[in-house]
Specification:
Catalyzes the formation of sulfite from adenosine 5'-phosphosulfate (APS) using thioredoxin as an electron donor. It catalyses: [thioredoxin]-disulfide + sulfite + AMP + 2 H(+) = adenosine 5'-phosphosulfate + [thioredoxin]-dithiol. Its cofactor is [4Fe-4S] cluster. By secondary structure, the chain is of the alpha/beta class. It has one domain: Rossmann fold (3-Layer(aba) Sandwich), CATH 3.40.50. Helix content is about 35%, strand content about 10%. The chain has a six-stranded mixed β-sheet. Strand 5 and strand 6 form a beta hairpin. The chain is globular and about 50 Å long. About 35% of the residues are buried. The N terminus is likely disordered.
């Protein structure tokens, strides 16, 4: 399968805020609880804490909470070498909006070269095993460097995102001796976008093209009405739609 066959380019354009943003009665309380979780984590872990941002809308909400409440929490992201230009464009926008630098972790160039030479540029389409191997080189290895020496990391996981994430905890062991914190795990999609609208959070313009979950460009497409949030990730697979970053130990 070729990446050119993805329906990504043909996705219609709309406004995610107009489509989804709905301020609920519970959202004020959820915001306060999320801030409290972040504050407690900053006290408990100090310099050992980092936000691992996918640069998706949930992570931008968390970055806004961190910056808005002046929390001393580092922010980092992965540049896999296959991200959309729109995704990478958020890094300078974060710096401009919040005055916060985002540490960028990239895969080891030689490992990428060897993998592509061995398996081809479109290895991810050949088998689940090769797709996961690609994720291993481009995501898992640089994530391990991002988290080296850290005692806790913050994610934008939400229980509503997929069946595989329905039991996401606010605070859990990541299987590597660190705490994995998901401060907005109980937020709905409508609440995420209501927060974005209220506080004018910068977001990826690809969200306006019906892409709620955005990963590497070859592996992301728009979703149809009624599809799972993560249906656009590795859409050619019958899998759990995970790359290994958030698989429970």
């Amino acid at each position: 399968m070729s990446a050119a066959l993805s329906p990504l380019a043909a996705a219609p354009t709309s406004s995610a805020i107009a489509l989804y943003a709905r301020w609920s009665r519970e959202l004020d309380g959820k915001i306060g609880a999320a801030v409290e979780r972040l504050q407690d984590a900053a006290v408990a872990h100090g310099a050992g804490l980092v936000q691992s941002s996918s640069l998706g809308v949930e992570d931008l909400v968390i970055t806004d909470l961190i910056a808005r409440h002046r929390l001393p929490i580092d922010i980092a992201t992965l540049d896999t070498g296959k991200l959309h230009a729109e995704t990478l464009g958020l890094i300078p926008r974060i710096a401009e909006r919040y005055g916060r630098e985002v540490a960028v972790f990239q895969p080891v160039n030689e490992q990428v070269i060897q993998f592509v030479r061995r398996e081809g540029e479109e290895a991810m389409f050949k088998s689940i095993e090769l797709r996961k191997a690609c994720c291993g080189v481009r995501k898992l290895e640089p994530l391990a460097r991002m988290l080296k020496g850290r005692s806790a990391w913050i994610t934008g996981l939400r229980r509503e995102q997929s069946g595989a994430r329905a039991e996401v905890a606010f605070d859990e062991d990541d299987g590597q001796g660190r705490r994995k914190l998901s401060p907005i795990a109980d937020w709905t999609w409508a609440e995420v976008w209501a927060y974005v609208e209220r506080f004018e959070v910068p977001t990826n313009p690809l969200h306006d093209q019906f892409m709620p979950s955005i990963g590497c460009a070859p592996c992301t497409r728009a979703i149809a009405v009624g599809e799972d949030f993560r249906a656009g990730r590795w859409w050619w697979e019958d899998s759990s739609k995970e790359c290994g970053l958030h698989v429970k130990p």
